[in-house]
Design goal:
By secondary structure, this protein is mainly α. It contains two helices and no strands. The termini are close together.
Length: 69
Amino acid sequence: MPTRTSRTQLFAKGSILAVIISVPSLVGFFVSWAILDNLIEAAIIGLVVHFIAMGFALKIAKKILAKKF
């Protein structure tokens, strides 16, 4: 019989995934903005980093959220 995930566990796992996706994007954006001093190029770099992080988060989510039956 499968076990249910509590709300606290679900909130914790969702927060971990949100941090995995958002922190690299923000760091990439702000560092590239500071170095290049161009907002548009920094936004593009941040967007690219965001999609790369989403790819890794998908793999991590499968491991974190996988239920053992």
